[in-house]
Amino acid sequence: MRPSHRAPDQMRAVSLERGVARYAEGSCLVKFGETHVLVAATLEDKLPPWLKGQGRGWITAEYGMLPRATHERTRRESSTGRPSGRTQEIQRLVGRALRAVVDLPAMGERQITVDCDVLQADGGTRTAAITGAWVALHDCFAWMKARNMIPRIPLKDHVAAVSCGIHAGVPVLDLDYAEDSNAHTDANFVLTGEGGLVEIQGTAEKDPFSEADLMAMLGLARKGVGELVALQKLAVG
Question: Which CATH architecture has domain 14-236?
Answer without folding.
Answer: 2-Layer Sandwich (3.30)
